[in-house]
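Workshop exercise sheet. Pairs work together: one partner reads the sequence aloud, the other fills in the structure field after running the prediction. Swap roles for the next sheet.
Pair: D.N. / O.F.
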Amino acid sequence: MTGRPLPGVLRNDQGVTVVEFALIAPVLLTMLMGLMDLAYNMYTIQMLQGAIQTAARKSTIEGASANSTAIDGVVTTAVHTIAPSATLTFARKAYSNFSNANRPEDYDDANTNGTCDNGEIFEDANGNGTWDLDPGQTGFGGARDAVLYTVIVNYERPFPVFAFIPGQSSTYTLSVNTVLRNQPYGLQNGGSAPSTGNCT
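Structure field:
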């Protein structure tokens, strides 16, 4: 009987629940924090999208550039109700039409190398005489212009999920944009067909 375990010891399961919980708790807590972090970020994005749409509509009227601080302040206030320490960066670029927004000027890629070079012909959408990856003009633009309004938000994560998931940082950055056409309060500048040029 000396070398055989007691049958009562084998059947004793006291403390097993505590041990199991100790093993599962870190994984469970990480999952819960991850879900809460995801939900928080999604809610912030929704609030930002609503605020940016409102601000963009206010930006389409004549003379809106004089009220840029107040217009951007609407977005800042909306975001700060959720993420008080968030920093916001605003950018506006104007294009003659929607199809030019945030895309390179068209060119004839004769040598099929994916680069505008060797004298290839390009469409000078912004009239500056050079081929541009983005032909937009910084600012509110003029009458009938399509304006790309972008807001970048950076804030500290409210849940320390970054400490448990590799590759995550303590801050979260999101970018939201919208494109709206300015109201027809006058004639559009550069309404004629764009000129062409040659790539260098």
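Discussion prompt: The chain has one domain: 15-198. What would you look at next?
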